[in-house]
Amino acid sequence: MNKMPASYWQKTSRLTAWLLSLWLVLTFGVTWFARELNAYTFLGFPLGFYFAAQGILLCYLGIIVHYSRRMRDLDAEHESEAEPE
Q1: In Å, what is the CA distance from 57 to each residue of 24, 35, 71, 82, 84?
Q2: Per-residue model confidence (pLDDT) at position 55
Q3: Residue 68 · residue 16 · CB < 8 Å
Q4: Rounded to an integer, what distance in angstroms lies between the CA atom of residue 17 and that of residue 14?
Q5: Tens of each residue's pLDDT in the chain, 85 residues
Q6: Helices 56-79, 6-32: inter-axial angle, 10-degree rounding
Q7: I need a labelling partner for 30 at 20 to 30 A (CA). Which of 5, 36, 68, 78 fits?
Q8: What pLDDT score does 1 carry?
Q9: Are 63 and 22 in contact (CB under 8 A)?
Q10: Nearest C-alpha neighbor of 16 from the set 63, 75, 55
Q11: Contact status, residue 70 vs residue 63, Cβ threshold 8 Å
């Protein structure tokens, strides 16, 4: 197994922290502002309900897809820099 350089782990940690922060803001932000969001409607449903039922799940899926693509790119970028064990 190859050892990855420190820059790989720094970028991976930064990406993970950023996406976890986004997850935290989305998860608790929607619940915190649910009453205010319900003042607006989307496709006939209160916006707070829509975000809780559908929108947040799509956001989570987007986070997963972004993480997967970015990690694939980071792996390819640092593959040649890996030191043999």
Answers
A1: 13, 19, 21, 36, 40
A2: 82
A3: no
A4: 5
A5: 457 788 888 999 999 999 999 999 998 887 788 888 888 887 888 888 777 778 889 999 999 999 999 999 999 888 766 555 5
A6: 170
A7: 68
A8: 45
A9: yes
A10: 63
A11: no
Amino acid (one-letter) located at 57:
L
- Residues in the chain, total: 85
Contact 82, 11 (CB under 8 A): no
Q: How far apart are CA 49 and CA 79, in angstroms?
A: 44
Token pair of 77 as six digits:
């970028």
Residue whose tokens read 């039922």: 53
Q: Which residue, chain included where needed, has tokens 């996406």?
A: 19
